[in-house]
């Protein structure tokens, strides 16, 4: 029996072998299906949490001090003064950690207690997920999450197909298809057959490879291969399939989902780690001071104190020998001084830090500007210990689907035979930038997100425009979409969101795809039902980047083709050059708007030509050698001399504000890496539309599939980078083997244009002389004349895209540093087809080698590993569950809120905690060192200078509130200015506000302050007397004077540090100083003496000191000596050496830089030409669907039915039968190996021309009755 709360011993496996319906199977050697994502259990919480907390050296330091205070012979302070704050800090942190872990336990319990049906004997038995074991046969129903990793046995589809949603695994919301073996799918749902199923399954050991499964199923003496298509993984969800049966092969922690999930770790900020090192230094400094006091005490006791034992007796347990007793005495003094001088790092520091962080977290929670009203999702700081690190982020790792995008594709614009449709125009026919929602056209059937404003296209359809009708007929026919009838509504099951958008758009405009089988397609073209014979589907793959369909109707054969513009253009007939030139202009316009483009083409085929080609295709399909290559060659033969029909423009809807957010974060010096499960083409286009990739970036692609090819590509890109840098910036890189770094050449990546070499003649007339970069990155010989043609091209840094196949190799030890070097030289990196574990590996690569602060953001379970790995994890509460949110440190509803989280809350938090720390160390060194100086005048006896009440309350009442106000409320510029001026974020990245140098300056400042505060009052009162003739040089008066000056000086110093003065701060600052006087006046009054009847030696001191002019003169002169130099230094710095913050504050007041920047921006736009990057995107589908359809294995479930006319006049209420409940699903093919050959991402065009939109034609009263393109007259072909 296993002991509760202990981990099960891990058994190393090479392979597994199980037998279905075998009750004798020993499953104890395999992991159970119960999962645990929490960090603690009821037994391990206390020791494990305390261990983690005492890893913070400050806590260990205070524990050591507490042990010393428990020894009465050496302690002059009660142990309770350390016990209470230490317990408070430990308890507060423990409660927070327990709360977070309880949430994880609840999530685990909810998952583990889900129920599923298992086949036991000849009946169904309901089990909880945690009770499911390897070898169990389970039944899954539609919309149910898959319990564990299972081998499919049968499904409700007669061919054994079942559809799954893999959002939790790879972030993709499109559906994918899996299938049972043909031999087992006949078992169906017959319990007799299923319970007698006794196949033996042998398969690989548990691993984290989501795209691979290797095994064999042996049944009835025959062995059948199993692959990834035959397995349903935990975390996926059964969709559009009534039921499925399967055998559990991996359970619990062995499932591929859990193998790709990282472990929850204890995160500490960089400032925490720095504080640990600083505390070690302070402790060493403390030991040095105590050692000095110990040596001096030993000498003093030996030569002086021994002779005055009658007045200053030694402890009775000390030796009476002069030397031995002096040594024993000084050793006790050493420990006493450790206690007295421990206030250099008081425990109130950590209490204050935790309090400040808590309030900063609440400010995030309360920020209404980060509240997402549509989903009722507020921002949430799920941890209180990482706020300031939000102001130091240098790398952001982001998911794409659901994080940057909504994963919603909409048909946005189109070009039909040189005519542009979709742009909104005003009365004068000019393009309007803002669409008038009131002029949105209404349709009978449309998607909720579909919007159309251009009446010209509607009029063209009604007038029977042959080209437009042909255009939409192609969209209704040329695809691999499967329709399904459900509750009286058609649901399109498309293998990609783009396919779905195009077919849905065709339906919206009245060209409805109704039904299909392996040999025909049924559509309704303007309410007229047409059935076409389906002859061939020329399937899509990553090399072809297009798909074609060959259909026949009434003896006429037509080929329709759609694909990437780079592929279609080279297959057009020579007569299409003129129309292609016009379409090119439209493609450029679409690309500049960030839309995904696709070209459509067609051609007529005569029957003899087709029959000859069909014979060649049959031979290629039956070839035993190089079958795929031969089939592709045959496809090429028929896809020639095409006629251009037009172009489509699809918008991949981004989340609101994403482009502006990414652009601003990039201006803040943050590098953004997108880690997505999508293909290169998809990620590239999203990168353009969200401004992660820009037209002026030099973008490189790593798409090799073997290690040798990847290594060669890395070297090639590196050399290209070097050549580009030398060409543009005039630097000479002598050592090409040295790691590339912009800082080595003094180039600011945010200001490339300032460092560009001047291509025109230099002032000395030597045209060939290279420009030399000075140390600050400025040019020594450059002039401000216009750039010549050589450097006229814009340059916005480097971008890098890498495919999934290549990423496998670059993450190996041999190549990862080369990849990291190139990645850190780029402004943006996009990694495609990335598994969850690879996401964490990429994050770890940067974290471990760059030592930069990282942030990971995502919205699905596939992002959990990188969220947990990064310094900061952010979860977006989206449509893919709450796994990412539960694993995150911060969460909100939209990606765009990341801008405010970092540039406002993060920057302010870092600024505030930095100012708090440097001021806190200053004031405590000033306070503590006075004890040190006093030791030289008190026989090194560890006598305290201050009143014990003051020692206990200094960091609580007399200096706490102003410094807390500094750490909680201070701000250099407003939130709006913080967002408007993202360059203000860079000081946090460079650790400019708090580092070892600033800490040393604070310590020196504190030491000098303690000298002034101690010695000026000492000299002032050493020979002074009160009006009554009594001396003023008593310990109590001197201690009170030093304490009072200390309170006034440190609080006024705090005022000089504060930028954001409010009524609350005035109250806190002046109130603290006033409270000091009132408190001591009351404490030292005779009234207290009368109440407590104790002989308190400080009675009357305050009244006596405050009534002397000597005290007030000393106070004024000390404040002047300490504060005037600080004031003058700051004035000189701000006047003659202002930093970024100073300039921003000045600009906030006078708006001078804003005006100058606007003028410079306008000039730059005038002189800098813009190039337009053409989307080379075809459509994000995968190979394999054509054969599924033509073989009849995938059968349409939607019977054809008549529907009314689809288009409604503008400005009339919609009578959409489908409404918001209408859904369209997208599918992926059986073959998931789509990471191969992801090449030719873009075919850039450098031309950009003005497109003139003509006036809309007059509407016709009647639509054309005949719109079938197969029956068009020969006139349309001319």
UniProtKB/TrEMBL annotation:
Its main location: membrane. SUPFAM superfamilies: Calcium ATPase, transduction domain A (SSF81653), Calcium ATPase, transmembrane domain M (SSF81665), HAD-like (SSF56784), Metal cation-transporting ATPase, ATP-binding domain N (SSF81660). It catalyses: ATP + H2O + phospholipidSide 1 = ADP + phosphate + phospholipidSide 2. Mg(2+) binds at residues 399, 401, 859, 863. The chain crosses the membrane at residues 278-300, 331-353, 916-937, 949-969, 1003-1021, 1033-1052, 1064-1089, 1109-1128. It holds the Pfam family Cation_ATPase. GO terms for molecular function: ATP binding; ATP hydrolysis activity; ATPase-coupled intramembrane lipid transporter activity; magnesium ion binding. ATP binds at residues 399-401, 499, 540, 562, 596, 676-678, 833, 839, 862-863. CDD domains: P-type_ATPase_APLT_Dnf-like (cd02073). The keyword Lyase does not apply. Its EC number is 7.6.2.1. It is found in: Membrane. GO terms for biological process: Golgi organization; phospholipid translocation. Residues 18-83 form the P-type ATPase N-terminal domain. GO terms for cellular component: plasma membrane; trans-Golgi network. This is Phospholipid-transporting ATPase.
């Amino acid at each position: 029996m296993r002991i509760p709360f202990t981990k099960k011993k891990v058994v190393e496996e090479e392979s597994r072998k199980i037998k279905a319906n075998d009750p004798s199977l020993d499953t104890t050697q395999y992991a159970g299906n119960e999962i645990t994502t929490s960090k603690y259990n009821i037994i391990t919480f206390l020791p494990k949490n305390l261990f983690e907390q005492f890893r913070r050296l400050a806590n260990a330091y205070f524990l050591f001090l507490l042990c010393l205070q428990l020894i009465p012979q050496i302690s002059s302070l009660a142990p309770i003064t350390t016990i209470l704050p230490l317990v408070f800090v430990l308890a507060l942190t423990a409660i927070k950690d327990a709360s977070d872990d309880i949430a994880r336990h609840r999530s685990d319990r909810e998952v583990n207690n889900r129920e599923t049906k298992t086949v036991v004997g000849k009946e169904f038995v309901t089990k909880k997920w945690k009770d499911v074991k390897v070898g169990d046969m389970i039944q899954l129903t539609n919309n149910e999450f898959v319990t564990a990793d299972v081998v499919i046995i049968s499904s409700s589809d007669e061919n054994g197909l079942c559809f799954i949603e893999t959002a939790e695994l790879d972030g993709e919301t499109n559906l994918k298809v899996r299938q049972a073996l043909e031999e087992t799918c006949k078992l169906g749902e017959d319990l007799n057959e299923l319970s007698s199923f006794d196949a033996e399954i042998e398969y690989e050991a548990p691993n984290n490879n989501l795209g691979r499964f290797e095994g064999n199923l042996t049944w009835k003496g025959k062995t059948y291969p199993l692959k990834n298509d035959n397995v349903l993984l935990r975390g996926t969800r059964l969709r559009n399939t009534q039921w499925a049966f399967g055998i559990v092969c991996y359970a619990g922690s062995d499932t591929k989902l859990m193998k790709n999930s990282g472990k929850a770790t204890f995160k500490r900020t960089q400032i925490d780690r720095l504080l640990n090192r600083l505390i070690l230094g302070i402790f060493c400094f403390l030991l040095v001071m105590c050692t000095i006091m110990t040596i001096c005490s030993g000498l003093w006791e030996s030569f002086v104190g021994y002779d005055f034992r009658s007045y200053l007796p030694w402890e009775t347990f000390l030796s009476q020998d002069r030397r031995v007793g002096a040594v024993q005495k000084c050793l006790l003094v050493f420990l006493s001084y450790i206690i007295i001088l421990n206030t250099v790092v008081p425990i109130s520091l950590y209490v204050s830090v935790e309090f400040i962080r808590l309030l900063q977290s609440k400010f995030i929670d309360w920020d209404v500007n980060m509240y997402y009203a549509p989903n009722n999702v507020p921002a949430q700081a799920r941890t209180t210990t990482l706020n300031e690190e939000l102001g130091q982020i240098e790398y952001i790792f982001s998911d794409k689907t659901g994080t940057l995008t909504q994963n919603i594709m909409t048909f946005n614009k189109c070009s039909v035979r040189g005519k542009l449709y979709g742009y909104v125009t005003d009365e004068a026919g000019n393009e309007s930038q803002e669409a008038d929602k009131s002029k949105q056209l209404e349709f009978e059937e449309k998607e909720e997100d579909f919007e159309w404003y251009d009446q010209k296209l509607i009029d063209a359809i009604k007038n029977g425009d042959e080209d437009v009708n042909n255009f939409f007929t192609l969209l209704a026919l040329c695809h691999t979409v499967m329709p399904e009838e459900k509750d009286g509504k058609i649901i399109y099951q498309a293998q990609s969101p783009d396919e779905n958008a195009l077919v849905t758009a065709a339906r919206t405009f009245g060209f409805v795809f109704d039904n299909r089988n392996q040999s025909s397609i049924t559509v309704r073209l303007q309410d007229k039902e047409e059935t076409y014979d389906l002859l061939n589907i020329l399937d899509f793959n990553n090399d072809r980047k297009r798909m074609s369909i060959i259909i026949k109707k009434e003896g006429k054969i037509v080929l329709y083709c759609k694909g990437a513009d780079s592929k279609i253009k080279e297959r057009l007939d020579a007569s299409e050059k003129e129309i292609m030139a016009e379409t090119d202009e439209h493609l450029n316009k679409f690309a500049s708007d960030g839309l995904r483009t696709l070209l459509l083409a067609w051609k007529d085929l005569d029957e003899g030509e087709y029959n000859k080609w069909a014979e060649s295709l049959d031979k290629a399909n039956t070839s035993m050698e190089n079958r795929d290559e031969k089939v592709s060659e045959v496809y090429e033969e028929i896809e020639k001399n095409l006629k251009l029909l037009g172009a489509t423009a699809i918008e991949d809807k981004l989340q609101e504000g994403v482009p502006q957010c990414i652009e601003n974060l990039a201006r803040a010096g943050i590098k953004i890496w997108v880690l997505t499960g999508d293909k290169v083409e998809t990620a590239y286009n999203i990168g353009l539309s969200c401004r992660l990739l820009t037209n002026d970036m030099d973008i490189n692609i790593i798409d090799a599939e073997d290690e040798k090819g990847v290594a060669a590509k890395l070297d090639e890109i590196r050399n290209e980078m070097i050549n580009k840098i030398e060409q543009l910036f005039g630097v000479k890189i002598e050592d090409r083997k040295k790691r590339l770094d912009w800082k080595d050449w003094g180039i600011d990546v945010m200001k490339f244009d300032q460092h560009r070499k001047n291509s025109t003649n230099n002032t000395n007339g030597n045209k060939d002389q290279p420009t030399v970069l000075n140390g600050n990155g400025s040019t020594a010989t450059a002039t401000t004349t216009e750039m010549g043609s050589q450097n006229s091209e814009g340059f916005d840094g480097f971008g890098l895209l890498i495919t999934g196949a290549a990423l496998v190799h670059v993450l190996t030890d041999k190549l990862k540093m080369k990849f990291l070097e190139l990645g850190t030289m780029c402004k943006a990196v996009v990694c495609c087809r990335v598994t969850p574990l690879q996401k964490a590996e990429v994050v770890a690569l940067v974290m471990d080698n760059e030592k930069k602060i990282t942030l990971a953001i995502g919205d699905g379970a596939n992002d959990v590993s990188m969220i947990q790995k990064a310094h900061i994890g952010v979860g977006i509460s989206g449509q893919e569950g709450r796994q990412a949110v539960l694993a995150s440190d911060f969460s909100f509803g939209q990606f765009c809120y990341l801008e405010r989280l970092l540039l406002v809350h993060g920057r302010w938090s870092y600024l505030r905690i930095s100012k708090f720390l440097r001021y806190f160390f200053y004031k405590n060194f000033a306070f503590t060192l006075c004890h040190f100086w006093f030791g030289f005048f008190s026989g090194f006896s560890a006598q305290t200078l201050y009143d014990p009440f003051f020692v206990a309350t200094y960091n609580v009442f007399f200096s706490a509130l102003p410094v807390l106000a500094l750490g909680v409320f201070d701000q250099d510029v407003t939130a709006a200015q913080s967002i408007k001026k993202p360059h203000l974020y860079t000081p946090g990245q460079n650790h400019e506000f708090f580092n070892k140098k600033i800490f040393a300056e604070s310590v020196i400042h504190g030491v000098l302050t303690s000298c002034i505060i101690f010695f000026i009052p000492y000299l002032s009162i050493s020979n002074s007397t009160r009006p009554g003739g009594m001396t003023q040089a008593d310990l109590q008066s001197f201690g009170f004077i030093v304490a009072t000056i200390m309170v006034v000086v440190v609080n006024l110093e705090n005022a000089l540090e504060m930028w954001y003065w409010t009524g609350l701060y005035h109250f806190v600052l002046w109130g603290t100083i006033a409270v000091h006087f009132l408190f001591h006046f009351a404490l030292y009054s005779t009234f207290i003496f009368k109440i407590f009847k104790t002989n308190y030696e400080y009675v009357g001191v305050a009244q006596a000191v405050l009534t002397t002019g000597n005290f007030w003169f000393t106070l004024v002169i000390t404040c002047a000596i300490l504060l005037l130099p600080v004031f003058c230094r700051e004035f000189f710095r701000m006047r003659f050496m202002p930093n970024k913050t100073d300039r921003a504050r000045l600009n906030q007041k006078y708006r001078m830089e804003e005006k100058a920047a606007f003028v410079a921006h306008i000039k730059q736009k005038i002189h800098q030409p813009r190039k337009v990057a053409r989307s080379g995107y075809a459509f994000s589908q995968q190979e394999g669907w054509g054969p599924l359809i033509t073989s009849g294995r995938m059968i349409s479930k939607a019977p054809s039915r008549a529907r009314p006319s689809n288009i409604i006049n503008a400005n009339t209420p919609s009578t959409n039968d489908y409404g918001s409940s209408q859904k369209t699903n997208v599918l992926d093919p059986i073959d998931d190996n789509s990471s191969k050959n992801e090449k030719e991402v873009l075919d850039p065009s450098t031309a950009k021309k003005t497109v003139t939109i003509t006036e809309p034609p007059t509407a016709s009263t009647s639509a054309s009755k005949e719109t079938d393109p197969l029956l068009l007259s020969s006139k349309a072909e001319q």
